[in-house]
Request: fold
Amino acid sequence: MGSSPISGIKGEIYSKKSAFWKEGFFCFKEFVQLQLNYLDWDSEGVQSRKCYETAVKHGKPVIVMEPVKGGTLARVPESVEKIFRECHPEMSIPSWAIRFAASQDYVMMVLSGMSNMEQLTDNMSYMSDFQPLNEKEQALVKKAVDIINSNIAVPCTGCSYCTEGCPQHIAIPKYFSLYNADMQEIKEKAWRPQGEYYDRLTLTFGKASDCLECGQCEQACPQHLPIIQYLKDVAARFETQS
Ligand code: SF4
Ligand code: SF4
Reply:
């Protein structure tokens, strides 16, 4: 770890609250950098909330990466955009994502990649005198998540009833969550983290392609999902990438 928590960090850095920055977090020599955004907050695959809560438990401040999910949360469905615009016509769509990340108490910085002056000006407009999301805004973000997730590729609820008897110890709901997250990414995004998360999980669990097609999981699934076929989709997406 470098001598300063910000040394070596590439990209644009904002302090959320100047008081926090000066009085508390700046003196920390350790921090945790997490992918954290409102869509990944409760996702079974990325687990932003659980990772954040673990950092809090250990007293480590958090630096956020992917607050806009690589641009994905700048291009939300029309119905979500309408909800946000009705609440704050003057605020940009990405501002909701960055403010969500910065609103978490233990977040000391939010890293936001910007490609032009317009984006810089926009970010500064709400970060220079930062106001955390209020209750109403939090509820709108939750609604946005529900709308976005209603179009997910695999409607798995994450109940895990399917995993106990799997002879290959395949992390079925985790893989489906990563698959859904990957399908939600915009096509232009150069780097997608879900493939890396998948690779790491396969160090502990069986791969999707290890499935023996025994059918145990499908009998256990209360949603009656065609798990075997979905696992083939997962394998095709994550196991054929270089
Ligand atoms: S069908 Fe595949 S995923 Fe399902 S229990 Fe059998 S081996 Fe596991
Ligand atoms: S039992 Fe079905 S809904 Fe539950 S985690 Fe497994 S695949 Fe998902």
In short: The radius of gyration is 19 Å.
